[in-house]
Amino acid sequence: MTKIIHAADLHLKETEKDYCFGVLAEIIDLAAKEGAAFLLFCGDLFDSFEDMKALKDAFRLKLERLKGCEVIYLPGNHENLRRAPAESLESYDLGPVTKCLAKPYTLLARNGVEFLAVAHQESYAGYRDWGAPPVAEGKARVLLLHGTDSSVYTGPETEETKSGVIDGDLFEALGADYAALGHIHARSERRAGRCLACYSGSARVWRGGEEGPRGVYLLAA
Description:
Radius of gyration: 16 Å
Strand content: 25-35%
Strand order of the largest sheet: 5-6-7-8-10-9
Order of helices and strands: EHEHEEEEEHEEEE
Low-confidence stretches: none
Mean pLDDT: 91
Number of helices: 3
């Protein structure tokens, strides 16, 4: 059994560094306690590109406590805020992190699990033309995605929910068994065919009108 922790939208921020890293430490402790093989950050790990640059060294030190657990990081829309055109996440060392930066997706095969990490975009309408391969026989597929699926999240509409719109048929078309979603800060989930699609909710940040639990998901594949 492979244990996976799904987290999103931590919005690590230099001006709230102590609280931010306190929440991150709790997630790392949970991964260690559960013996998780993978920790997924599904977008908006940092509140902006400038925050990433300011916090990257401290972030790298925090991850040193995490042994035997691969961190898979899909950037969201906030990682592009306050980013100069010539700058890229690829140029910065975040420690033992697998950064999924390729467009339209990155496919990782690990321990009987395929992780299909879809790069953030304003619209995912072209997913049928991406040429994503079918799931390998005997493997489960976990989809990492940062955007808005109104069939999963049914809460109040905000400016944020109007961006990164996901077609509800995308999960089935890409062969997902589990969709690890980010972008919406409230926890919600729905089943779409064989796929369970989940917003873990932010472990740290609320938006106006959001309610209910927040944290991370722990799943087994």
